[in-house]
């Protein structure tokens, strides 16, 4: 049996104790936390506890059942006071009965420690001088508070924590941190929409950030600073010098190290009370559901479409909200997919392939651009977690930072959308789509129409090396009116073969069977021609 509850009445420890009686139990341990008359040099007159109850009870019950399972104890319970408390009153009680005393001690300590760390409870202290202030639960959770609790027990000698002495290692780490500054959320809590209850919501939230790059860095920094309870960081890449102009959380000396670990270190330094977890691999269909299942909200900070669609499908199926952003040169877009809302596939029924829109490496980017969009993602995430008004919903936000123009595109849930039906495996790799030629004229002779999908300015620099060809820029080819209709077998050509392959895949899906992509693109032709290499 395990319970967690709140009470506005005085805690009746004798009555609670009888609930834990069990003829098989040989030991009983309890802990009482009392209201003391001082804190950090202030004389405290009385205090108030406030809890975000639905979440707090859920988390509290989780902790108690974890303790029962972990230590194999028979019964455990925890009761926390809320409301106004006088000096000397009991604020929290934990009781555990077990077959043996060792498990009872351990489970009792586990419960109080975890409750202090994880349960969204807020304390407002009223001081002798008439001032008052919210003391965040991180402060309760911070080692200085543990230290005070244990000292309190030592000083007065009537503590009810029948626990073994603290393990030396725990004591050392506690003492090492005594006096260390603690996170202070007063600036955001001062907003009436946030307050203590909002802070507790943030504290109880678990957010997974996919990608620790240009978008991820501001997202991670702001969410860690805001006191999100658990932050998961996913990135399979290592830091490169070319990342640093936009990924401002890292240092040149970090080059070569896994970004998820670097980011996690940074979070620990920024806010030690965030439970940060790093995953140094790429999100893939084998690991996505397990990982996402451990979080309440997902933020997409990736730069590739296959991951975005994988995330989309997985989150639609698991019913988790995702905040998506994409950046292309000076502009970007933002979309939130929630349970029941339009998803990426509703908006882009023909899944955009990697390569259609260039990533930062190919297209180029100025650092603040992903910074702006990552900031927007962090803000939308907090709006969602705090349940603030004005959340982006049913719309795709497109922001051009060069012109500072904003447009909103309505998104509608498509009844035919496969994303909602089932977790769809990513589309199979292309086979037989790519063909190689040593020259485009040979391709033409072999019966191909040549269509160069590059932009006009690219052709000015490097014209299509063919005597017979057409230029249809990619967007026009895929989305222009009237729709592209090949007369005969068509070979799509671009600079590297990546955009043309993605385009060929899309056209194939529309039923155009005779569309192919030139492997390696014009660059490969050039190389072959200038180096006189045989094919
Ligand atoms: Zn959909």
What's the topology here?
Elements: E1 2-7, H1 13-19, E2 27-34, E3 38-39, E4 42-51, H2 53-71, E5 75-81, E6 83-86, E7 90-98, H3 101-118, E8 121-127, E9 132-135, H4 137-141, H5 143-156, H6 168-177, H7 186-189, H8 195-203, E10 206-210, H9 216-226, E11 230-234, H10 259-270, E12 275-279, H11 288-293, E13 297-300, H12 305-318, E14 322-328, E15 331-337, H13 344-347, H14 360-363, H15 368-386, E16 395-400, E17 405-410, H16 418-421, E18 434-435, H17 440-445, E19 449-452, H18 456-461, E20 470-471, H19 474-479, E21 490-493, H20 498-509, E22 515-518, H21 521-531
Parallel strand pairs: 1-5, 10-11, 10-13, 11-12, 13-14, 18-22, 19-20, 19-21, 21-22
Antiparallel strand pairs: 2-7, 3-4, 4-6, 4-8, 5-7, 8-9, 14-15, 15-16, 16-17
The structure holds zinc ion.
Please tell me what the overall shape is.
elongated
Radius of gyration: 30 Å
Largest beta-sheet details: 8 strands, mixed
Query: How many helical elements?
Result: 21
Determine the strand fraction and express it as a percent band.
15-25%
Order of strands in the sheet with the most strands? 12-11-10-13-14-15-16-17
For this structure, the quaternary state is single chain
Question: Please, what is the average pLDDT?
Answer: 83
Give the bound compounds: zinc ion
The total count of strands amounts to 22
